[in-house]
Amino acid sequence: MKKLLFSLLVLILPSIGCLAQDDNHKVFDEKSGKDILLGAVTRDGLIGMGDWFDLAYNEYKPDSATIAALKESKDQYPYIFVVMATWCGDSREQVPHFYKIMDMLDYPKEQIFVVAVDRDKKAGNFCIGDFNVKLVPTFIFTIDGEETGRIIETPVNSLERDLLDIFTGKQPAPGQ
């Protein structure tokens, strides 16, 4: 069932980009007293939520040797499904760092899909229940519909090092 869900996600990712009117949906978060994003989001939507994205993006300095090693995996880049929250401090730090790394890699944009959740881990009309996301951000990596790795909340080493471990198979896939 999980493989089928990942396969469907991979198949619908390119077409979701055509549904721009459904992207970057804002709702009011009572706890913070501010708007948050809910459902499918774009990078522009994240940037539009305040200066936190640009600040975290610009301050992050990924390790150049690890970036070079990541580029060697270019022909095997997985699909990446990101579940994050604009109200979450870890998401507000790690997601801009993630985008900086993706920019440095010239990562194919059509292989990245980002969903924002509320405090109950609900994503509006987008169902994430089958992905077993308990903490945000969660980065889920898949190849041919099979999950090959996850980064949950914060990296173990650094974001780029954890990505390299997943891309090269040094991080065991979930369930192994």
What is the topological layout?
Layout: H1 2-16, E1 25-29, E2 34-41, H2 43-47, H3 52-59, H4 64-71, E3 79-84, H5 89-105, E4 112-116, E5 138-143, E6 146-152, H6 159-167
Parallel strand pairs: 3-4
Antiparallel strand pairs: 1-2, 2-4, 3-5, 5-6
Helix pairs in contact: 3-5, 4-6
Describe this structure in words.
- By secondary structure, the protein is α+β, with helices and mostly antiparallel strands.
- The protein has a domain at 25-131 and 158-169.
- 35% of the residues lie in helices and 21% in strands.
- It has six helices and six strands; from the N terminus they run αββαααβαβββα.
- It has helices at 2-16, 43-47, 52-59, 64-71, 89-105, 159-167, and strands at 25-29, 34-41, 79-84, 112-116, 138-143, 146-152.
- Strands 1-2-4-3-5-6 form a six-stranded mixed β-sheet.
- A hairpin with a 2-residue loop joins strand 5 and strand 6.
- Helix 3 packs across helix 5 (89-105) and helix 4 (64-71) runs parallel beside helix 6 (159-167).
- The longest helix has 17 residues, at 89-105.
- The protein is globular.
- The protein starts with a helix and ends in a 9-residue tail after the last helix.
